[in-house]
Write a structure and sequence with these properties.
The chain starts with a helix and ends with a helix. Helices cover about 40% and strands about 10% of the residues. It has a 6-stranded antiparallel β-sheet, with no helix packed on it. The radius of gyration is 36 Å and the shape is flat. It is α+β, with helices and mostly antiparallel strands.
Length: about 950
């Protein structure tokens, strides 16, 4: 069949890149995806819950297969939660669903999940794979800032779009042409991030356009149009002309500077916004000052070494090779300035009163110069002072003439009032206008560019700072659209015939057969993709949704519906869903509900060997596919188990798995396009360079190593097992409930007890308690709130993040002997968890050496209650407590805060602690092994049990 289709398409090339109606009809008969989808009714029997099941059952019977039974309610709620919101249900939610015996219990569950904000977070991540989203541009040379300050606005747009169930038609149109339609919410301009929040390919324009063609056609149409960049598509009816028709559309757009991007939302904190504005204006003035300085320098160069540029241009016109771009002062000539001066001198300058002579001299040899000058003196249309300069002088070579012109330019500029006409020409005013018109960066040297890069980086960084307004990463149409040519063999300098900006010929119908005339054509392109008569768009989307639910698509190549793509396993079902989707307002939420209420979705995932012998790959869905959690689901589930998961308000992305433990969902993590973390890759997170049609499924050692050894899992396990109260068995039950959402069975309780006994042996020799280093808020009653561990160890001290001081919390850190509190009421805390029962004594010497500020205050707290308090300013104070009765598991906090102001609050406070045992006179000295704690944080048997439970298949798999 493929060979036949290739033969059909080869004939297309004969017609000059046009596909005749006859040829297209012939191809449509052979390629299923180009035929209009038909909604066919199918018989539904007892097992069926929706029309979907009728199609599935029909295929099962044809293959001598039978469906599996319905999964348990516990399995169904877990499956629904992960598929719709990407998080596991809590024990209370599971119990409530299991106790609801109404007929609509499951349907109500789906309806409820579709209304949650977490739904948009989960489904936005699906589309971010397709849209090859990341927060940076990809590799850039030198010290250029890769970041996209406003990439997050596209992510937030996606979350809103899925949560509001935006019509998929509008979803397409806004991502391609949001700037050309009326929007109810101006934040939807951020939809254009589909095009702009992508790899910059070192700012190579042809590659950027190719990327936009590729993501648009694969993402929405399931066609590999980019394969036609250099030649007609080898298999599909996509001639090279079609590629360059789309090329013309995207080449007719441009991106505003980052500082000119439209503001779509102002921050709620008005004071922060005003502070941002003042700092922004200061940075802009600094940049304008640098630009003005460089423009003046270039203008001076024009006067001083203009002759050098004339010589170089003349030699390059004559065809000299290996010319050195060095001026007479030994400096590198400005390459872009060479191009612009050449253009200005050669463009219609032949009859210019002043530059005409220079124009005519560029292309002749030295022997003709005297005659050219003699003829010039006879002409009546030359500038008088040019004649004066030439009169009485013997100019024999071009170099001498160019030097003369250089002197004349200097004279004109210095005496511009005397020679206003010549000054207004390119000699002076027009040259300045050229510099003002263009970004000065195109003319600067490497050293000058470094200075501009630094200020640009500072401005970009400031655009993402607190108080900055949100902006949309938009494109806009050029004033004059590009009239595209075919680049023969993909080479821009080898132009073939012109082609119109229009839609793909294989999908053109009625009004889309003609060329696009509305600006760039982006809106016309978007409408043609989103049209009901397009046979691909709805099919491609419903297939993606099916894949996101079942782990495999009806078409197993979701971004390739061409000849080399997979054929649909259930073609009639795919067509039914496509038509149903269009009839139901292109609603993805409705499509989700239709699929999830089907019997095929609600099947068990248990292996049945008799069925597997016939259909091992489960192509015909005789059971539900068992699916492992993806990276985002895994991390989010772990954070939820700790009880620390917080709702993200939207906005700038945050770093994950680095310094500070982030309690937010992974979808909000900052993504470096060319530096995706290794752990992300280990769990099959896709590369962000190209559109991703599906994630690979691997089981590799790195996954297990991360679960066993990573700081994230260790810390999460500790937090999950924290604050367990009650007897041993009760604590085990609470831990199982936190992690699995259920009570353990008897065998699991026995396993947990055995594990705890064995694991505890490794801690018996420890004579010092568990030390934690962190920070917390100290309220008006001197109670600690939200204690958070430091997560970054910098050679000799714990601090909040790699950045110091931290942007939000200031100079907070702890070293082995001292430290510094943070901003406001941020206190630093050394927390000691006791492992023995006894009488505790504490001895220390608090020192504050600076006479600025108001000093520091230290507190010793026992299980939150104050044992002692001392103030210190530019002095030394002993801090001693005797015979404090403590129990194993008690918490003792050594706290330091800034009092009213955080100025000059560095302190020294070495502390020693000892304990007397109640059953003997033995005294134990409790030491802080600061560096050892940094290398291996304390880890109890309960922490280990929590980690083991989170490494189990029950936790790591959906079913």
């Amino acid at each position: 069949m493929i060979r036949l289709l290739v033969c059909v398409f080869v004939s297309f090339s004969v017609a000059g890149n046009e596909i005749s109606p006859e040829q297209m009809e012939k191809f449509k008969k052979e390629l299923w995806s180009l035929q209009q989808p038909l909604k066919i009714d199918v018989e539904q029997e007892g097992w069926c819950k929706t029309p979907i099941d009728g199609f599935i059952l029909k295929k099962l019977k044809e293959q001598s297969l039978s469906p599996s039974g319905q999964a348990s309610k516990r399995t169904l709620i877990r499956r629904a939660y992960y598929n719709l919101i990407g998080l596991p249900p809590t024990a209370a939610e599971i119990q409530r669903f299991e106790n609801d015996h109404s007929e609509r219990a499951y349907e109500k569950l789906i309806d409820d999940l579709l209304t949650k904000k977490e739904y948009g977070e989960k489904w936005a991540r699906h589309w971010m794979d397709v849209a090859r989203f990341a927060d940076t541009q990809g590799f850039l040379p030198a010290n250029r800032d890769q970041s996209y300050p406003f990439s997050y606005t596209y992510r937030d747009y996606l979350i809103r779009a899925f949560n509001t169930d935006k019509s998929y038609k509008d979803f397409i149109i806004e991502q391609l042409a949001a700037d050309q339609v009326e929007l109810k919410d101006k934040r939807d301009l951020a939809a254009l991030g589909f095009q702009t929040a992508a790899d910059r390919f070192l700012n190579k324009r042809h590659e950027i356009i190719n990327d936009r063609i590729d993501v648009t056609t694969q993402g929405f149409l399931g066609l590999t149009v980019a394969c036609s960049r250099c030649h007609d598509h080898k298999f599909d009816p996509i001639p090279t002309a079609d590629y360059y028709s789309l090329y013309g559309i995207f080449a007719s757009t441009e991106e505003p500077k980052v500082t000119d991007l439209p503001i779509i939302n102002l921050p709620e904190n008005k004071q922060a916004y005003q502070k941002y504005q003042r700092a922004y204006e200061k940075l802009q003035k600094e940049k304008e000052s640098i630009y003005a300085e460089y423009r003046e320098n270039i203008f001076k160069d024009w006067q001083e070494v203009a002759a050098d540029y004339f010589i170089y241009i003349s030699k390059s016109i004559a065809g000299f090779k290996g010319l050195k771009k060095i001026d007479s002062k030994g400096r590198e000539m400005r390459p872009r300035l060479i191009i612009d001066i050449r253009y200005m001198l050669t463009r219609d300058r032949k009859n210019d009163p002043f530059f005409g002579l220079l124009n005519r001299s560029l292309r002749i040899n030295n022997s003709k110069i005297p005659g050219l000058i003699k003829g010039t003196l006879k002409r009546g249309d030359n500038a008088e002072f040019l004649k004066e300069a030439l009169s009485g002088k013997t100019v024999k070579t071009k170099d001498e003439l160019f030097s003369l012109y250089s002197e004349l330019i200097k004279k004109v500029i210095s005496e511009k009032d005397k020679y206003p006409v010549v000054y207004d020409s390119f000699a002076g005013k027009a040259f300045k206008e050229l510099l003002a018109k263009n970004d000065v960066k195109r003319y600067v040297s490497n050293a000058e560019d470094d200075k501009i890069t630094k200020i640009d980086n500072r401005i970009k960084k400031h655009l993402a700072s607190e108080g900055a307004p949100a902006r949309a990463m938009v494109v806009k149409d050029k004033a004059k659209p590009t009239e595209p040519y075919i680049f023969e063999r993909g080479k821009p300098d080898s132009r073939g015939p012109k082609v119109p900006r229009r839609f793909l010929q294989a999908l053109s119908y009625e009004k889309y057969q003609e060329k696009f005339t509305e600006g760039s054509g982006r809106l016309e392109l978007a409408k043609s993709i989103a049209d009901d008569k397009n046979p691909l768009t709805a099919r491609v989307l419903v297939n993606r949704v099916w894949q996101w639910h079942f782990g495999q698509g009806i078409v197993n190549t979701p971004s390739n519906f061409g000849v080399l793509g997979s054929k649909p396993s259930h073609p009639e079902l795919l067509d039914y869903l496509a038509v149903w989707f269009m009839e139901n307002g292109w609603s993805i939420k409705k499509l989700n509900k239709l699929i999830m209420t089907s019997a095929v979705y609600q099947q068990k995932s248990d292996l049945r060997e008799d069925m597997a012998e016939i259909d091992e790959a489960n192509v015909y869905l005789w059971k539900m596919n068992r699916r492992r959690l993806g990276w985002e689901e895994l991390r989010d589930s772990v954070v939820q188990a700790t009880g620390k998961l917080k709702r993200f308000p939207g906005g700038k992305s945050v770093t994950m798995l680095q310094a500070e433990y982030q309690p937010y969902r992974t979808v909000y993590g900052y993504l470096f396009r060319d530096k995706i973390p290794g752990v992300y890759k280990a769990f099959d997170f896709p590369a962000a360079e190209i559109t991703c049609e599906f994630r690979t499924k691997t089981i590799v050692p790195q996954q297990g190593l991360f679960l066993m050894n990573s700081n994230f899992m260790v810390r999460s396990s500790r937090m999950t097992a924290a604050n367990l109260s009650g007897q041993k068995e009760e604590k085990v039950r609470k831990l199982f409930t936190r992690i699995y959402g259920r009570q353990p069975v008897l065998e699991e309780v026995d396993f947990a007890n055995e594990f705890l006994e064995q694991a505890t042996e490794s801690f018996k020799e420890r004579v010092f308690p568990e030390w934690l280093y962190g920070f917390a808020n100290l309220n008006d009653e001197d109670k600690l709130e939200e204690f958070t561990e430091f997560t970054f160890f910098n050679k000799s001290r714990w601090q909040i993040s790699k950045s110091f001081p931290d942007k939000r919390k200031g100079y907070a850190f702890l070293s082995e002997k001292g430290g510094h509190p943070g901003n406001g009421d941020i206190a630093v805390v050394r927390r000691c968890k006791m492992h023995r029962t006894g009488n505790l004594s504490i001895k220390g010497l608090l020192q504050h050496k600076n006479d600025k500020g108001d000093g520091v205050r230290v507190l010793v707290l026992h299980n939150g209650s104050k044992l002692g308090e001392w103030d210190c300013k530019k002095s030394s104070i002993p801090t001693e407590l005797e015979n404090v009765k403590v129990m194993a598991g008690d918490i003792v906090d050594l706290v330091v805060d800034s009092k009213k102001t955080p100025t000059s609050d560095s302190f020294i406070w070495p502390v020693s602690m000892s304990m007397t045992m109640p059953t003997s006179n033995e005294e134990i000295t409790i030491d802080e092994d600061f560096k050892k704690v940094q290398k291996l944080q304390s880890f109890s048997a309960w922490h280990g049990l929590a980690q083991v439970l989170m490494m189990s298949n029950e936790f790591l798999y959906v079913d």
